[in-house]
Design goal:
Blueprint (H helix, E strand, L loop, with lengths): L1 E5 L4 E5 L3 E7 L2 E6 L3 E4 L3 H8 L4 E5 L2 E4 L3 E5 L4 E4 L4 E3 L5 H9 L2
Antiparallel strand pairs: 1-2, 3-4, 3-7, 4-5, 6-7, 8-9, 9-10
């Protein structure tokens, strides 16, 4: 799937498999891609609505992760490690749902 995301500088055409995770910054969302970061004026809630059908999971109020990039789940520390070695927090109330989602891949 190709996403068309627009910011002040350009319209970016991004493949969903290149998105590692998204992070909220107030009303902005930062798309953390394999090769760069793109900041857009769109809430993480809006982005979640679009991406959740493409194997993305809201692990925390400020993070949306690509489930295909998760390589490790640290249950004692409530974090996941992505393929690029980034640690992302997982809220305690979403941990069980995340485990279930990872089991369905």
């Amino acid at each position: 799937m190709i996403l068309k995301i627009k910011n002040r500088d350009a319209i970016h055409l991004i493949k969903t498999e290149n998105v590692l995770y998204c992070q909220a910054y107030g009303n902005y969302t930062c798309f953390n891609l394999r090769e760069k970061k793109v900041l857009v004026y769109r809430s993480l809630c809006d982005v979640t609505t679009i991406l959740q059908k493409y194997q993305f999971f809201r692990s925390h109020k400020s993070y949306l992760i690509n489930l295909n990039e998760v390589v490790e789940l640290f249950t004692k520390r409530d974090r996941v490690m992505l393929s690029n070695k980034t640690l992302i927090p997982v809220s305690k109330r979403r941990r069980k749902e995340l485990e279930k989602s990872l089991g369905n891949l």
